[in-house]
Design goal:
Chain lengths: 720, 213
């Protein structure tokens, strides 16, 4: 938690750029590796000799014989020696390393004999989802509510792999004299790629250096048959799983790293994709043919049984070539009825013929270790496959129920709103969450339009706001002689501008140039003209944004103005301090009633409700909860009113009661102001449901009223 | 587990909206710079350990406040329990500099009889081309109010560490000299558990004794 870095300032600050950077670290490691002398390379041993040309081979001999393990694992060659190559997770983490590294040697090659690799056309292929702009691709990945584009990530990297094959080939065949420039990784990725896709080629690769080059060349040029194999071995792999090591890093890292990734992406985009495109049939965005270490994005038959896939894979690959029956890998594979996907990149190799053979017991030991790893991976992946299957089933069920609910709302409830909206059945359905397609309508109806705002009034307010923006002095700093009051009001127009881009930044739709930027600007601006006494207050932009996501502009404005006109929202947005305190006191009454233990713990640590409630109430949870969950809270808030906001707060406290009771002040405060990214919706609503909003037979409204009457006595929070 | 610290200081970070308060704190506590961040509504919390001398760690509890003027009536309640504060302005935004004395007055009037050790921070110093406040005038203002002045950039990680550590050292000196005393019911400074094996110097044992009486 607390950072214990005590280094000097410069040390700490310089540290920040590569903070938590698995990729960068690995990347650096490899960079150093490829730049270092051959003797260091030999310490990283592995199957390097496979692809290197003869001249350097002798240098590898002595150290290789002392090599404890001889796996053709990509991770082994790329990472340092300390890494535990038995651990499956580290093996996984080796994969992204691989993806990052190939460009290094390619860069070397590009200047040299570009003819084979380089396409004269450096333009980005239009069909590919890559983006040169690093911020773009990364912000999407960061988003918690926006669907992650793991699909794209795969697309981004797998061609690189394929192409590293091409490069490796070129290096081996065309530029033998430059082989010392080749980084270990490009080579390893090459053999790995092949071992995944076609065993026979791999066998070839292992046994003969020179002929491997030829084989590879034909393989790549016959891209169609190659991808045939990969297509047939489609598996229900989750692209997100694949991406996850990288994305975790992407989330942590600073912008420097994003740039790094971005430039990498653009590099792939420019030189590599062009080649691929030219070579085989054009890659459609949804084409499932790309293959990355045996995993492919789920496209067709996502519920396919892994065993069946494996069988298909084996028959296919068997058909693809007669194969070498004495291949050691073959026998290993035959023993398994289910090939674990992650280990398809991990092949047990014999030492090449030009190296001394392993002692029998050592070989046996390695075989055993290898089999253990494969068995473990198999177990884990089976479990994962089952989990994914269940998730999919759940999602289907959920979608189905949403579909039927939407029908019920549309056909039965909405046409008879006034008579039905208070019925038991509708209330129950309401609690379960309003289907997104009717959400906006239901919110509008439930919030009502007490203020009788018409679309015309909205347009009038908007045009007034636009007038103001025009006359507003451009840089606020030049208006030096203003008094504080008017400067606040002026700056509220300015602040809107600044805050719009800070509203759900990860969604990328409210920012400058985004589809809803102007809409959000309009609604907030119109509101400051409609209610100049309230003006713009931070937090409003989130409420308006959620409404915009569910309603048309003018209707969103109507709902926005009416929502803010509710007593609780007025109290908060006008920062009516004493009234806010009353709300907090009422909340504490129900807090103590429902969760006495936690209440006592909070008291003991002098954690007052203002610390967490202000944010929750001001933004109606839209900033603190995942957006879909916040919308569900809004559903019931529209039905039950302010009381539900406080009930939700108690539900959250109840949900995390056990965690919170173990924390001190600062940890509780941090926890509550930054709630976990994943909050189980059903569980939360169960906890909310078990919060009773009655205290000594008094309901929320009565408690609040009573407190308002004797305000003097109960101001424990802010009047310190 | 909780790392052992000598004292815990509660710091408050104030200043106009969008001067970069949250970004500065994030850079200090998380070591990264977020291109985009939510506006702070109410107050956010951060903490970090700082080693001011070898073996002497101070736990900083940092309260990040909302900058909008409207929220001042809320945030002013948090001054009282703070021992130190960073008062930020944006060197590319003259108005945020002009508001510095408003912030100071506001703070002083709400912490009586305590006082807060403030550090004036000119933020976003990486944007030199858009500078609207010179270093000289900022230093002059800081001097007039008896504060230190430092220019920082969260984006380029300039002086971020220095700003927090300098302020922590200043407060630590005041605590060591007895100018600031630990008091019951005041959260500004708290004494941590001090094992004799690690900290055996005089002032440390004095400090730990203070908290038990």
């Amino acid at each position: 938690m607390a950072n214990t870095t005590h280094g000097t300032e410069s040390r700490r600050d310089s540290h920040c750029g590569v903070y938590g950077g698995a990729i960068v670290e690995n990347g650096c490691a490899v960079k150093n590796l490829s730049a270092s002398d051959p003797s260091t390379q030999t310490n990283n041993h592995c199957h390097v000799p496979i692809m290197h040309s003869e001249p350097i081979l002798p240098a590898y001999m002595p150290t290789c014989s002392s090599t404890p393990l001889y796996y053709s694992s990509p991770q082994k060659s790329c990472s340092d020696q300390n890494q535990d190559c038995h651990s499956l997770s580290s093996q996984d983490s080796g994969i992204p390393t691989l993806e990052i590294n190939p460009p290094e040697p390619i860069l070397h090659q590009r200047s040299g004999d570009g003819g084979l690799i380089l396409d004269s056309n450096h333009d980005s292929p239009a069909t590919l989802p890559l983006d040169d702009d690093p911020s773009d691709s990364n912000t999407i990945r960061k988003s918690s509510t926006f669907p992650r584009s793991g699909y794209d990530s795969i697309r981004l990297f797998s061609p690189a792999l394929r192409l590293s094959t091409t490069t490796g080939m070129t290096i081996g065949g065309g530029a033998l004299n430059r082989s010392d420039d080749i980084s270990v990784c490009s080579v390893s990725s090459m053999s790995t790629e092949l071992s995944v896709s076609n065993e026979d080629i791999l066998d070839f690769t292992v046994t003969s250096d020179s002929s491997a080059i030829v084989t590879l060349e034909t393989d790549v040029s016959n891209a169609a048959s190659f991808s045939d194999v990969t297509l047939s071995s489609l598996s229900p792999g989750n692209p997100r799983d694949l991406w996850s090591p990288g994305s975790g890093v992407a989330e942590q890292e600073g912008d420097g790293r994003q740039k790094k990734l971005g430039s990498l992406a653009s590099f792939f985009n420019k030189s590599l994709f062009a080649r691929r495109l030219k070579e085989s049939r054009p890659v459609e965005q949804r084409d499932p043919g790309w293959k990355l270490f045996g995993k492919v994005p789920p496209r067709e038959t996502p519920t396919k049984d892994p065993k069946r896939i494996q069988k298909e894979y084996e028959t296919k690959s068997g058909r693809a070539g007669p194969g070498n029956p004495t291949s050691p890998r073959k026998s290993v594979r035959k023993n398994l009825d289910f090939e674990p996907l992650s280990t398809t990149a991990l092949i047990l190799e014999d030492r090449p013929a030009n190296l001394p053979a392993k002692p029998a017991e050592e070989a046996q030991k390695h075989r055993q270790q290898y089999e253990e790893m494969v068995a473990q991976a198999k177990k884990r992946e089976l479990k994962e496959a089952q989990k994914r299957k269940k998730q999919l089933e759940d999602r289907c069920k959920l979608e189905e129920s949403i579909g039927t609910a939407a029908q019920t709302w549309n056909q039965e409830i909405l046409p008879n709103w006034s008579t039905m909206c208070t019925s038991r059945r509708v209330r129950d359905l309401w609690w379960q969450g309003i289907p997104p397609s009717v959400r906006g309508k239901v919110w509008s109806l439930a919030v009502g339009n007490e203020l009788n705002i018409t679309h015309e009034l909205y347009n009038i307010c908007l045009s007034r706001a636009k007038e103001k923006w025009k006359t507003m002095p451009a840089p606020a700093s030049e208006t030096e002689t203003e008094d504080a009051g008017s400067s606040d009001r002026e700056s509220s127009l300015e602040l809107i501008k600044l805050d719009i881009s800070r509203t759900f930044p990860h969604l990328c739709i409210f920012q400058q140039g985004g589809p809803y930027h102007d809409v959000l600007h309009s609604i907030l601006g119109a509101y400051t003209c409609y209610r100049p006494d309230v003006g713009y207050v931070q937090g409003m932009s989130f409420i308006a944004a959620v409404l915009i996501l569910n309603l048309d502009t003018a209707d969103a404005f109507i709902a926005f103005a009416n929502l803010l006109n509710k007593p609780c929202q007025m109290a908060f947005f006008r920062v009516d301090h004493s009234l806010m305190l009353t709300y907090f006191s009422a909340f504490e009454v129900f807090f103590e009633e429902n969760l006495p233990k936690l209440f006592a713990h909070f008291k003991k640590n002098s954690l007052t409700p203002d610390i967490y409630l202000i944010d929750w109430i001001f933004t109606l949870y839209s900033k603190s909860l995942p957006l879909d969950l916040a919308c569900r809270v809004w559903d019931v808030f529209c039905r039950d009113g302010e009381e539900f906001l406080f009930r939700t707060a108690l539900g959250l406290l109840r949900l995390y009661q056990d965690v919170l009771t173990c924390m001190d002040f600062i940890h509780m405060a941090q926890f509550l102001t930054r709630l976990p990214d994943l909050i189980p919706a059903e569980q939360l609503f169960q906890h909310i449901a078990s919060i009773h909003m009655t205290s000594r037979n008094r309901k929320w409204g009565q408690v609040l009223q009573a407190l308002q009457k004797d305000q003097e006595r109960c101001s424990p929070v802010l009047k310190r | 587990m909780e790392t052992i610290w000598l004292y815990q200081f509660r710091l408050i970070v104030i200043g106009d909206s969008t001067v970069g308060k949250s970004c500065l704190i994030r850079r200090f506590t998380e070591g990264r710079f977020a291109q985009v961040s939510d506006p702070t509504v109410g107050v956010d919390f951060f903490s970090r350990l700082v080693e001011i001398e070898p073996g002497k760690r101070i736990k900083l509890q940092i309260w990040d406040t909302a900058g909008q003027e409207r929220f001042r009536s809320i945030t002013r309640a948090y001054y009282r329990n703070s021992v130190g504060g960073l008062l930020l302005f944006d060197i590319t935004n003259r108005r945020s500099f002009q508001n510095v004395h408003n912030w100071l007055e506001e703070a002083q009037s709400h912490v009586q009889p305590h006082s807060i050790v403030f550090l004036l921070v000119g933020h976003k110093c990486d944007l030199e081309a858009q500078r609207q406040v010179t270093q000289q005038e900022a230093e002059k203002l800081a001097g007039a109010f008896g504060m230190r002045y430092v220019e920082t950039s969260a984006r380029d990680a300039i002086n971020v560490e220095k700003a927090f550590v300098d302020l922590t050292r200043d407060i630590f000196e005041l605590v060591r000299n007895g100018d600031i005393k630990i008091q019951d019911g005041w959260e500004g400074v708290k004494s941590g558990f001090v094992p004799n094996t690690v900290h055996s110097s005089e002032e440390v044992t004095k400090g730990s004794r203070q908290c038990f009486c």
